[in-house]
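Internal tracking record. Fields below are filled automatically when a chain is submitted to the structure queue. Please do not edit lines marked as system-generated. If the sequence contains nonstandard residues, flag them in the REMARKS field before resubmitting.
Queue: standard
Priority: normal
Entity type: single polypeptide chain
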Amino acid sequence: MSAALRKFEEKTDQFKELILYVSQKCANDQSFDSLKLSKVLFFSDFLMYALSGEPITGTEYIKMEYGPAPRHIRELKEQMEKEKSLGLQNLPLRKWRRPVNLREPNLKGFTAAEISLVDAVIDAVKGTDGKDVSELTHDWMCWKMTPSLGQTIPYETVFLSHEEPTPADIERGRAVARELDLVEQHSVA
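SYSTEM-GENERATED OUTPUT FOLLOWS
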């Protein structure tokens, strides 16, 4: 039996609001730039998927040289600039521009758990520059296992690990497989 990977509905408006929220929360972080924004969004969506089975925004992420990135982030940021909700500040001696929210984010579409997770991700990478955060993503199996640049990173790959499963992990996997009727039961004669 092969399971098809789920494709989530991309919540573009919610994704834009999350960009504004992260930009606002990181306004005093001198190391915040567009690269770091992409990584905060990635960690937030993939960790929420791991915890709840649903990502925050359903955005499609792709493998890029500097780690996972939302497939349409460039277009969305340009759109937000035209809408005058986001500014992109050029930084001296920096490759990536700094996103600056130009209006308050609308958080009505988010749960408390989602915002709490985003805040935890922001706190975890605070003071770390985008390139170092990018290096962290290169350690994730979901980035390593995606064969080529530009290819979609399936949400389900967040569960991949290079560590050996523990006996408890194996038993839990067997229990889930039985629960989902993914294994045939063989009787011993």
